[in-house]
Specification:
The protein is an alpha/beta fold. The chain folds into two domains: 3-205, Rossmann fold (3-Layer(aba) Sandwich), CATH 3.40.50.1980; 214-357, 3-Layer(aba) Sandwich (Rossmann fold), CATH 3.40.50. 33% of the residues lie in helices and 20% in strands. It has helices spanning 9-14, 64-70, 83-91, 110-117, 132-138, 150-154, 174-178, 180-187, 191-210, 239-246, 266-272, 287-293, 301-305, 326-329, 331-342; strands spanning 15-18, 38-39, 46-53, 56-63, 78-80, 98-101, 122-123, 125-126, 129-130, 142-146, 163-166, 220-223, 225-227, 230-234, 250-251, 261-265, 278-282, 308-310, 356-357. α6 (150-154) links the parallel β10 (142-146) and β11. The radius of gyration is 21 Å and the shape is globular.
């Protein structure tokens, strides 16, 4: 299957696409250090984005010279359709270039909210159901959006500007996810700035990680959350498992090789977590909320120890959670939160940004 047949001529002029079922990165050295779904060589004017669908891996090649010829850099108007895109653009100082968003009420960035109130930004639907007519009416110079399946690519076939599809959410390490900021920097003509931002975040992350290098005791960590009596445990090869390991924790699901979530019933979790020291990733804010959800939570050892932590400290009244926005591009801060929970003695004066203990 070739993806470019769904794209209009204008987009084809910016993006050359191909999609083999077994697409793999070339052997030449990749400038991306962590991201597995990005490939480019030093000095190249092309970047390959890989789409690891469930039934095969497609790829799309972005030709930077062609994009830069047609984008009015630095006066580019951007439709940024996911909160992760907005967070990266914020780190690059490009918030004032955003003219279109989805789910504006869930966005935590105060500058975006202010620009929306003043009419500089328009809402064009939801992240899962973009209103293409509203998007077209904006006449953005470029659209940046997440691709969750092939249909997400097909629906932009009539958009008369470059459409940048990202799959950072498919990356399995925190630094791999935020490294996509370098890709956006290449696309938007601010590569040097994006590289500087990323390498500073990498430096801070590794400095945090080094705090746990010599820990002898690794607390046992339960992660994930339940929905309708089904527990979604992060896989042992997931980015959450990486956070826990880098924070000096012993994740009870570490032996699983899944990069996504592993479905378990409560009885399985109860057995696996009998010696757990902490639970991270709970969605509720209080123990009363947990009781209302499921009385069996009281059987968990972490419930009895009162060592349960949610990641909802920075939620707004509309359900937006800055953990999935600012936290996405600042894994160094998220790691600091994990360290404070798992090894509080290493950061005695630190106040977590995204996590808090249940009340």
């Amino acid at each position: 299957m070739r993806l470019f047949f769904v794209l209009c001529f204008t987009i084809i002029s910016f993006v050359a696409c191909n999609s083999s079922q077994k697409a793999t990165a070339p052997n030449e050295e990749n400038i991306f250090k962590y991201a597995q779904n990005l490939y480019s060589r030093q000095g190249s004017d092309t970047v390959v984005v890989y789409f690891p669908w469930a039934d095969g891996r497609d790829s799309m090649v972005y030709c930077l010279n062609e994009i830069h010829k047609n984008l009015p850099i630095p006066n580019t108007s951007i439709a940024a359709l996911s909160t992760t895109d907005i967070a990266m653009l914020s780190e690059l100082g490009l918030i004032d270039k955003i003219t279109g968003v989805c789910d504006y009420f869930r966005i935590s960035n105060e500058a975006v909210q202010e620009r929306y109130k003043n009419g500089f930004i328009q809402n064009v639907g939801t992240s899962m159901e973009v209103n293409i007519e509203s998007l077209l009416a904006l006449h953005p110079d470029i659209v940046i959006t997440s691709a969750f399946n092939r249909a997400d690519i097909q629906k932009y076939q009539h958009v008369q500007c470059p459409v940048v599809f990202t799959t950072s959410w498919q990356e399995v390490s925190p630094l791999a996810r935020v490294e996509w900021i370098r890709f956006l920097g290449m696309i938007l003509g601010v590569q040097e700035q994006a590289d500087s931002v990323f390498f500073e975040i990498e430096k801070k992350y590794n400095a945090m990680k080094s705090l746990t290098d010599s820990v002898k005791q690794k607390p046992i960590v339960l992660a994930g959350a339940a929905s309708n009596d089904i527990w979604y445990m992060p896989g042992g090869a997931s980015y959450i498992a990486t956070f826990i390991a880098d924070a000096g924790g012993d994740f009870i699901g570490k032996d699983n090789t899944n990069t996504g979530s592993v479905v378990m019933n409560f009885e399985q979790v109860l057995q696996l977590s009998s010696n757990a020291d902490v639970w991270v990733g709970c969605d509720e804010k209080t123990y009363e909320d947990l009781d209302a959800l499921n009385k069996n939570y009281k059987l968990l050892s972490v419930y009895q120890k009162r060592t349960i932590y949610n990641r909802s400290k920075r939620c707004n009244s509309n359900g937006g959670n800055d953990y999935w926005e600012y936290g996405y591009v600042r894994p160094d801060i998220v790691l600091a939160d994990y360290i404070k929970i798992i090894h509080p003695e290493l950061l005695p004066d630190y106040d977590p940004v995204f996590f808090e203990g249940l009340k």
